[in-house]
Amino acid sequence: MEAVRASAAWVASRSTHVKVDLSEIEKVVEKIQGNVPKVEWDFEGIHYFDNSPLTIQYLFVLDAMNFCFWPDKELTYDHLASGLKLALEKDKTALDADRLQNYTGPQLRQLLNWPRPLPIEEERVRLLHEVGMELERSFGGEAANLVKSAGNSAATLIELITRHFPGFRDHSLYKGHQVFLYKRAQIFVADLWGAFKGQNYGEFHDINSITIFADYIVPAVLRELGILKYGSNLSCSIDSNSEIVPGSEEEVEIRACSVYAVEKMRELINKKFGKQLLSIDIDLWLWSCGVQNMALSHHRTLSIYY
Q1: Distance (Å, rounded) from C-alpha 56 to C-alpha 196?
Q2: In 3D, which of 180, 182, 185, 189 has the Cα closest to residue 154?
Q3: What is the tens place of the pLDDT at every residue in 151-201?
Q4: Catalytic hit among 63, 170, 191, 215
Q5: Angle, alpha carbons 151-41-77 (nearest 5°)
Q6: Residue 206 designated active-site
């Protein structure tokens, strides 16, 4: 997404709390010799997949709720993905558009087999209702029809998602400039591409337009690698688990600089080693490193976008 790349670069050029260390990017690229370890989609075996439109419905609902797990120390993305998977295996109609519109908080917990209220539960329920209503109104109740209408273009699919589903409009205002990050919309495209192995519903002629997915984990890994440098106040806030205000300069800089840093890494790998890597591949590698080292300190923001 050029809007994401351009606005991330704009933030990075003016950032005061977060800096991208280009020399450290060069060190990392040299160390790995331009070879980013290939991480398969669903390497943990937690997702639903049956090679049908139901898989797309699953992924769209999953990514509608794919945000903010950290306030509950035991809850992870895995619980959401595997919970929805088990629900579908028990009842193929569990994610039908008409049912999505009527779930309550307790019913959502029951669906996911989770014993207590979810973080920002009311927002997750609201987004389920939004997804169900708009799928029914504009796409015959099926996320597969949404995907088909994009004509195998990742950029078009993201534009359709953000036009029809306000809950996916991952925008921020930074120093008077609008910043687009689109984490959940982009990760839906990446999930389709990964699940269907670039074929059928996962075929996109412009998959290279997708950036990384600016979340909590990737910035923490980039910081550990020395690529992201935080100012002392921000470092103290993150290391002490203090909350970072959503939409604040610090929060926008962390996410935007992460996108920018990986774009520079991708460019350098191409320049030095002649390899055309996808941002998705780099994101999967960094994310898998992060989930295997949960001791890493990450920023904490109550947000529906990641």
Answers
A1: 10
A2: 189
A3: 999 999 999 999 999 999 999 999 999 999 999 999 999 999 999 999 999
A4: 215
A5: 105
A6: no
